[in-house]
Write a structure and sequence with these properties.
The protein is of the alpha/beta class. It has eleven helices and 15 strands. It is elongated.
């Protein structure tokens, strides 16, 4: 019994050491065995054994030497985390469009797809469109279903801790666990999250808020919604509805999109907002009045969040960002009499991929959580690309 217990303890210790080495490689690659030993505090033989196991199961590989690199004697072998060992998908499906992104485990986007959606499409048909769109997208890029370790879908609605959605935009989805429906027989994790929550994750990861901790993100366009991070962490609230000031008629955000309905001239294929922005750039009085009206409608909600959170930064994202050059100073003027301090206001640079980019980040967070824990790592060995 003692020998069996001791063997079990040794196996557990080896698994823990393997996890520690994978965590170090994931954090910084490539590294030599000596660097890994110093980084982890493990002995070199222990590190070497862990690297061999990770390599055998497809999570680590020997790094190629840089072109032109010269070193006296035999160069030390360097190892890296294999970002190509799996893929994640980020999706944004709303009332008017669907955006899909495919990324490796390092967060590099490998492929993207966007298509318009009929806003009158029902909830069931919209879900079928997403399923078919994902399947076609992956097939077009020769990605096997088993390669997808996690997928995350951004939706216009509040997602509670149990995964149930409440949506005023797509009412048929309310009360539904979309993640469970989408995960049917699919490998890997399937996550569903509120779209504006994903937008603020994207801004913190790759956008305008990379250096800010307390951030308010305002999603503008066909609707207005808000989200926030506090101390760099997404604040979802008790039931996932933090920041949803767009639902409060008193503040005016619920009708803000009406101000963007431009009846003026449009070039072929030009969106309504793009035409409005072009007209405002040309100092068209009607366009400038429309932008001012939009600022009037969204500023009280931004002021309420500014007073509640006192953020470092407010990021404007979504469809109305082409108006930013005119919109930002107008919002700043309107916030001065309403707030104690006017926060810095920035425009997102992520364009229509903002929500899907945040979905990629959330999917990566799930994969990293799985791979960097002892028990999940052992489970991954049974399905890893290099598993015999």
């Amino acid at each position: 019994m003692r020998n069996g217990t001791r063997g079990h303890d040794l196996a557990s210790l080896r698994r823990l050491n393997t996890t520690v080495v994978l965590r170090a490689l994931h954090r910084r690659s490539p590294q030599t065995l000596a660097e890994l030993a110093a980084d982890t505090g493990l002995s070199r033989p222990t590190v070497e054994s862990a690297v061999e196991e990770l390599t055998a199961h497809g999570w680590a590989a020997e790094a190629e030497r840089d072109e032109g690199e010269r070193a006296p004697g035999r160069p030390a072998r360097r190892f890296r985390f294999r970002v190509e060992a799996g893929r994640v998908v980020g999706a944004d499906i709303g009332l008017h469009k669907m955006v899909l992104l495919l990324a490796d485990l390092g967060g590099t986007v490998l492929a993207a797809h966007r298509e318009d959606i009929d806003p009158d499409l029902g909830g069931a048909e919209r879900l079928d469109l997403l399923r078919a769109g994902l399947a076609t997208f992956l097939a077009a890029h020769a990605v096997r279903r088993d390669d997808i370790l996690a997928r995350c879908v951004g939706v216009p609605g509040v997602v509670d801790a149990g995964g149930t959605l409440t949506s005023h935009v797509i009412p048929e989805w309310s009360g539904v666990d979309l993640a469970r429906l989408l995960a049917d027989e699919e490998p890997g994790h399937t996550l569903v999250e509120n779209d504006v929550n994903l937008a603020v994750l994207a801004e913190r990861w790759q956008g305008a808020a990379t250096l800010a901790g307390d951030v308010v993100c305002v999603l503008t366009g066909h609707r207005v919604a808000c989200s926030l991070t506090i101390g760099g962490r997404l604040h979802r609230g008790r039931r996932g509805g933090a920041g949803e000031l767009g639902l409060l008629p008193l503040l005016g955000m619920d009708t803000a999109q009406e101000a963007l309905r431009w009846q003026g001239a449009r070039d072929p294929g030009e969106s309504e907002v793009a035409a409005l922005a072009r007209a405002a750039d040309d100092a068209d009085p009607r366009a400038l009045a429309a932008v001012a009206d939009f600022a009037d409608r969204i500023s009280p909600g931004i002021a309420a969040l500014a007073l509640a959170v006192d953020p470092e930064l407010v990021v404007l994202t979504g469809g109305a960002t082409p108006l930013g050059g005119h919109l930002v100073p107008l919002i700043e003027d309107r916030l001065r009499p309403l707030t104690l301090h006017v926060p810095r206001i920035a425009l997102s640079t992520l364009g229509e991929k903002g929500v899907a980019t945040g979905a990629v980040r959330k999917a990566l967070d799930q994969v990293e959580s799985d791979l960097l824990t002892d028990s999940a790592l052992q489970e991954s060995f049974r399905t890893a690309p290099g598993h015999p």
